[in-house]
Amino acid sequence: MFCAMLALTWRTWPDAMVDFGRELYVPWRIVEGQRLFSELAYHNGPLSPHVNALWFSLFGVSLSSLLWLNGLVLVGVTLLMRALLRQFVPPGGATVGTVTFVALFGFGQYVAIGNYNWMCPYSHEVTHGIAAALLALCCLSSYARSHRLLFAFGGGAAIGLAFLTKAEVFVAGAAAAGLGFLLVMRARARDGGSWRGSAALALVGLALPPCIAFGALAATRPIGDALTGTLGTWAHLAGSRIGEQSFFAAISGLDDPIASMWLLTRWSLIWCGVLVLLASIGRLLPERLRTGASLALAASSVAGAVWVGPSFPDQWLRPLPLLLAVVTAQGLARAWRTRSRTRADVAAEATRVAFTAFALLLLVKVLLHVRVGHYGFGLAMPGTALLAAWVLASTPLLLARWVGASLAPVRIAAIGLSIGLAFCHVALTYWNVAAKPHTVGTGSDRFMADTRGLVLQAAKDWLEDNTAVDATLTVFVDCEILNYIARRRNPIPFGNFNPHQVRLFGEATMIAALNRDPPDIIALIQRDTSEYGARFFSQDYGRKLAGWIRTHYAPVGPPPSIAGQTGAAKDIHLRFWRRKP
Fold it and tell me: 245 near 257, Cβ under 8 Å?
């Protein structure tokens, strides 16, 4: 499955303009000696940029180099997921869960914008943070089985690493690991064992990565920058007014909560109906008809998926938070009630509760709008992988226990439904990949893009033909990838000027940076940013920045001619400005 999805989506993973340019540009500049948080503005934790910069320093600065690292992270997370799921799902469930992860999330492309996959994530803090949290849960499981202090320390240290990524991943990982650790400690205390030393070591491990990060940053930066950098997302939460922004309201489903609740309810009823149908096939039909009915349901599911293809609605995952909440509460109650257990039993129950709690808490940011695509590639991944394992491994057993349903017919029908659902997502990925026929960049930086790639390549060609190699470049609105593929340094800390970033860092601060070190060239790549609540730079937001540009810069000739600028690129306008004498 890994090789098949890799081949299907080869080098189509980044987005031609949004987000991923930062993931390439920032570690490149760190390798070149610039300091994160002082000379490079950044609103997440320091772990991922420095990990990627270290990789660049060892294996070269290129997209291909980063793809190797991200592929290793993908493999590592697959192994961690398998190790965790094997603790508490029936045989075969762990394999189903990991295959689901690779097929649907590892390489999937479900929206027009790239970056929502594990090969080229919009933010490496998501993938690295989830990997660290899963490692912490593995340490928890190992500690519950062996009571070795090393695993308690390792689990705390892994959560400490997650602290250096993104707030939502850290909170989910810390709360889930803490809950699992509490269950293990309770079992130890009930058996007369000592738990204080383990708890102390776990806390030391938790504190160690942030302390090391602060010390390393403070050695080369002002204390304030070091503290802000170590805190990462937390330092910006108070002033970012995230809840006021249409983008974050839309991804969470809070832009229209009534409609979101209705979709959640409707899909909950649909999936309850599917369960009733499976139970009916396995219990109510005469035995001689059960296999035929299950085969018919499986075949019709696959046929329906082929017919619907990429147009299958993405709302089907909306009930996932409800399911995870019920399972987490049920597992916690059972673990709390049960008294006489072996270490293996304690480990299995603590791992189950911690994993389901982690999967649930990751969904808080998208609570009423859970989907496989967009932010779901990371936030919905553990829950969906667990759901797949349950559907194919646990559901037939539960129906057999509850209503006496025959196992084989239920399994056949569940397999058919799952294959059909997976086919729809792979078909949508194929459809989006097919819309990326244009090559951007050369050599090891080459990738495929939609028509927006034509704009990016035209901008790169213009810079190479009309500017010196050491010319500095600032790109408006949010296309840092141009700085990277053209290898042109941005002299100011800010490389993103969309409404969210302007609100986060402040227009006055950005103008002050431009006054201190104005770039030789400004590239204005104007695009619609309505998802952030303001449509166009200079018209709906960033007016002071636009005024500063007009005062100090003059447009350079006519805009570059771009053949084939249709589709996703038809409303994107490219113009270069050169500093006035």
Answer: no
Q: Choose among 11, 3, 4: nearest CA to 447.
A: 11
> Encoding tokens for residue 546?
């636009």
pLDDT 10s digits, 473-526: 999 998 999 999 999 999 999 999 999 899 889 999 999 999 999 999 999 999
Give 242's pLDDT tier (boundaries 50, 70, 90): very low
Instruction: Kindly give the residue spans of alpha helices, DSSP state H, lying in 253-286.
Output: 257-283
Q: Do 225 and 38 form a contact (C-beta atoms < 8 A)?
A: yes
Quick check: helix, strand or coil at residue 81?
A: helix
For the stretch 362-401, pLDDT in tens is 999 999 999 999 999 999 999 999 999 988 877 777 777 7
**Has residue 243 got a pLDDT over 50?**
no
Both tokens assigned to 321? 């938070």
pTM beyond 0.85: the answer is yes
Residues facing residue 574 across a β-bridge: 525
Give CA angle at 509 (580, 34), nearest 5°: 80
Which residue type occupies 472? T
State the chain's mean pLDDT as an integer.
Answer: 90
**Distance, CA of 131 to CA of 80 (rounded, Å):** 8
Whether residue 372 contacts residue 381, with contact meaning beta carbons closer than 8 Å, is answered with no
Report CA torsion sign: 155, 160, 162, 163.
Answer: positive
First to last CA, the chain: 58
Alpha helices per DSSP H over 311-406: 320-337, 343-362, 376-379, 381-389, 395-403
CA distance 532 to 245: 6
Confirm if 297 and 281 have CB atoms less than 8 A apart. yes
